[in-house]
Write a structure and sequence with these properties.
The complex is a heterodimer of chains A (206) and B (255). With 206 residues, chain A is an alpha/beta fold. Chain A is built from 6 helices and 9 strands. The two termini of chain A are 15 Å apart. The model of chain A is unreliable at 192-206 (pLDDT under 50). Chain B is mostly helical and 255 residues long. Classes of the chains: A alpha/beta (206), B mainly alpha (255).
Chain lengths: 206, 255
């Protein structure tokens, strides 16, 4: 079932962040949410995560098993990368598999160090692997490639593309190139229209 | 290089200040010249050595140590559990408030006398230590639970992380500084109040009884020697316990 967002509004005090916003997010595909700063991208994704309540409107079809890359890394700082990923995985996921995934994003020697000793980019990749490996039907990512240099960004994007096939993935981004190279539906919140991309059938947005 | 020089300097400063205090003590005791009021540090050390050979020396230490430490540990466990419940249910926090406030504000001597009526001698010092430890552990741990990173808890919520993993990966690491400072304060208080209870209750075979005897027979050297033993036991146990907490955390972080 697609995720249908209809006429949702959210304001913080006087400040209106979302005002009757509607869209459809297709199931088992990648969708990009774009738009200028302050247009409500993070608010929208937080509503989908269930972290904040909308004031008005209806959201339907959000699976209950979610995983996420938050705007901040939100890692358990005194634990290493493997433990951070294991925290959210079920027991079937073995340590070797976690290590393999971390290595795919270019994390090699530092996976046994407490994550507080890692650089910002490394932490980001741990957060991405955590979201990908957790058992979920939808992955919500808020600027997952933020702070990565070009080389690791490409590697991490490729990792996400390969490991989230046939899953509903929502990515908030500022970078149109990320959307172009990964491919999927683009929702531009700035102009409140949806832009189809990469052979994606626009009719679904009705 | 730089830090090791500073470390050495700190050590020299500490030794110098301790030596200075001992000299001041020795000279003032010699000037006063009355061992009933104040004994010289040398006399205390002599008395300490003669205490080692007395039959009931180690049994008195064992008696008080076991009871006070038991009181501390029960206070630690009960305080932590109460804090966990109060952290989860605000109603519980409100219900605990009058009890915690009472324990905090009533003078320990009043509790000791009340407990002399309620309890047997054997459990008196344990209970008083427990009572003094409980509110410190409770307040600190509760504060720690309340200041747990909300964003990490949200993360756990989104990923549907179970309670056990939340405790191990989120709560315990965040509680570390609160736990260490609470234990360090509570431990000192457990010893002071536990021994006070033994003195007031004149508990048979305890360190408190020895202090009481020193008061009755005006043996000031005994008072000083036993006081020194209490301080060493208290600091020694505190160091050992904090070392174990740090070991526990090191093990936890390797999970």
């Amino acid at each position: 079932m697609d995720i249908v967002i209809s006429e949702i509004s959210k304001s913080y005090g006087e400040k209106i962040v979302l005002d009757g916003f509607s869209t459809v997010i297709p199931k088992n595909k990648m969708t990009f949410i774009m738009g200028p700063s302050g247009c409500g991208k993070t608010t929208l994704i937080n509503i989908l995560m269930g972290l904040i309540q909308k004031d008005k409107g209806i959201v339907s079809g959000v699976p209950s098993h979610k995983s996420a890359v938050f705007q901040e890394d939100r890692l358990c700082e005194s634990f290493n990368a493997i433990s951070n990923v294991r925290l959210v995985c079920d027991s079937k996921v073995k340590t070797d598999e976690i290590i393999l995934h971390l290595k795919k994003t270019g994390l090699q020697d530092n996976i046994l160090k407490p994550v507080k000793e890692l650089s910002g980019g490394m932490k980001r990749r741990v957060a991405v692997v955590r979201a990908v490996l957790a058992k979920s039907d939808i992955i919500l990512m808020d600027e997952p490639f933020k702070g990565l240099d070009d080389n690791t960004k490409e590697k991490t994007m490729q990792y996400v593309a390969e490991n989230t096939k046939n899953k509903t993935v929502i990515i908030v981004t500022h970078d149109i190139d990320e959307a172009r190279s990964l491919g999927g539906k683009i929702i531009n919140m700035g102009s409140l229209d949806s832009v189809p991309y990469n052979n994606y059938d626009p009719s679904i947005d009705g | 290089m730089m830090s090791s020089t500073i470390l050495n300097r700190n050590r020299i400063e500490k030794l110098a200040s301790a030596a200075f205090a001992l000299i001041v003590w020795q000279i003032s005791a010699m000037l006063i010249g009355e061992s009933l009021f104040i004994v010289t540090p040398i006399a205390v050390v002599k008395r300490l050595f003669s205490l080692f050979t007395e039959a009931d020396f180690f049994t008195s230490i064992g008696y008080s140590f076991l009871r006070i430490v038991a009181g501390f540990l029960i206070g630690l466990i009960a305080g932590s559990l109460m804090a966990a419940v109060a952290g989860k249910f605000h109603l519980a926090e409100i219900m605990f408030r009058p009890f915690i406030a009472t324990i905090k504000s009533v003078p320990v001597a009043s509790f000791i006398i009340l407990c002399l009526i309620w309890l047997s001698m054997g459990t008196l010092s344990s209970f008083i230590s427990f009572l003094m430890v409980l509110p410190i552990i409770y307040s600190n741990i509760l504060q720690g639970i309340k200041s747990t990173d909300k964003k990490l808890l949200e993360m756990a919520e989104v990923f549907r992380v179970g309670l056990f993993r939340r405790i191990v990966f989120i709560y315990l690491p965040q509680l570390k500084p609160y736990l260490i400072s609470a234990c360090s304060v509570a431990m000192g208080l457990a010893w002071k109040s536990g021994i006070a209870a033994e003195v007031i209750g004149v508990t048979n075979g305890s360190i408190g009884e020895k202090l009481y005897e020193a008061k009755i027979y005006y043996t000031t050297a005994d008072l000083f020697a036993w006081t020194l033993i209490i301080v060493v036991l208290s600091i020694g146990f505190e160091k050992l316990f904090l070392y174990l907490i740090k070991k526990f955390y090191a093990g936890l972080e390797r999970l």
